[in-house]
Amino acid sequence: MMLLLIALAHTPWFLFTSEIGATLMHPADGNLADRIAQAFTIVVVDTRTHTMFGFLFAYGIWQLYSRQVAKGLPVEDARRLLRTRHWWLLAFGLVHAVLLWQGDILGTYGLIGLIMVPLFFNRSDRTLKVWIGVLLAISFVFAVGSFAAMQLLPPLPAVPNAQQPILAETDVLAALVLRVAAWFPGLLSGVASLALPTAFLFGLLAARHRILEEPAKHLPLLRTAAIGGIGVGWSAGLVQVMVHFDMLDLPNPAGFGSVHFFTGIFAGVGYAAAFGLIAHHVQTRGSGLRLPGRALLALGRRSLSGYLTQSLLFVPLLAAWGFGLGAHLSSWSAMVVAIGAWIITVAVASLLDRRNVRGPAEVALRKLSYRTLRKRP
To answer: Which residues are within 8 A (CB) of 133 and not within 5 positions of it... i.e. 6 or more apart?
Structure first.
């Protein structure tokens, strides 16, 4: 399900002939079906999925590190493994951006891993909690301050969207150059915005206490995080929907985007907690997973391959340098494309799982990451 949210977040970017409204890449107009698709995406998906994956990324890093140390690998070698892995994630992200999609997130997570692991991996729980509080406070002041400041200004002219010219470029080589040029600022903004570093620290703290692996021991915390985090995120999302639909009279409606972005931290953590509660429900039911659940689990185990495959499926289909279908779609039909691409990845992952075949991207990343350990005398 997590990769479905990623697909839903990305496909609106490819509506490159639409006039952009007050929210990210969503069109300013549309019929009833489009409005429903926009509302769902703004409330549930936009600026929420990246923090959820940031949380889970940190959680997975700690699991990998703990497993290696438990097997007897020296701490310095385990840390070197993580560092190598993050450099390769950064490289994967660059290749992804060069070939397909400037909105890549792999490079951002690789960069965050390179920065956050040395700074925080050996810190105490108390230090992590303090820094979570500091980052949240800074982000809150910036979000609310930006929103308030923009409303004190007279109406500002719309800022040209930097992404549309990239996706509307029909020349393959020119589009490639534009994608790479856009990827580097996005790479840095993912760290500078503080949302992903904050989600990373939440995930690292949760992993230390095995909160998702042992949900039965942490049910009150998981329920509080899920209800509170999703509640905060969706409440701000509903306000953003009203802003997007021109239901609120604001001098500069785009200014609320900073608040919407900030609350994505809480929604992302809340989603991770909700998945922990779902896992607990499956465990306590004791009857095992049915076919749909097994297929979703198979994709989860091949999430890197699934993520890249989604781009391979819908980017050439929608971008102007490919088939250019994005020029003929609206919000609801773009959502159908996203769901279709995700269903294909679920089916392929299920087939690979039945044949006991790992995802190709996971295999490549593992081989590249562990190669330095094998070379060590």
So the answer is: none
Which region holds residue 188: left if phi is over 0, alpha if psi is between -120 and 50, else beta? alpha
Provide the residue count of the chain: 377
Per-residue confidence at 288, pLDDT binned at 50, 70, 90? low
| Cβ neighbours of 285 (radius 10 Å) | 9
Cα 229 from Cα 241, distance rounded (Å)? 18
The two three-digit tokens of residue 338, written as one number:
């996203």
Q: What is the pTM (predicted TM-score) of this model?
A: 0.93
Q: CA-CA distances (angstroms) from residue 226 to 16, 234, 340?
A: 35, 12, 28
- Residues 6 or more apart whose Cβ sits within 8 Å of residue 49: 2, 5, 6, 9, 268
Q: Which amino acid is at 377?
A: P
d(CA 284, CA 286): 5
Q: How far is it between the farthest Cα atoms of the chain?
A: 67
Pull the structure tokens for residue 233: 């995120």
pLDDT digits (tens, 9 = 90+) for 101-124: 999 999 999 999 999 999 999 999
Q: In one letter, which amino acid is 1? A: M
Tell me the sheet residues that pair with 20.
Answer: 27
- Gap between the Cα atoms of 65 and 54, Å rounded: 17
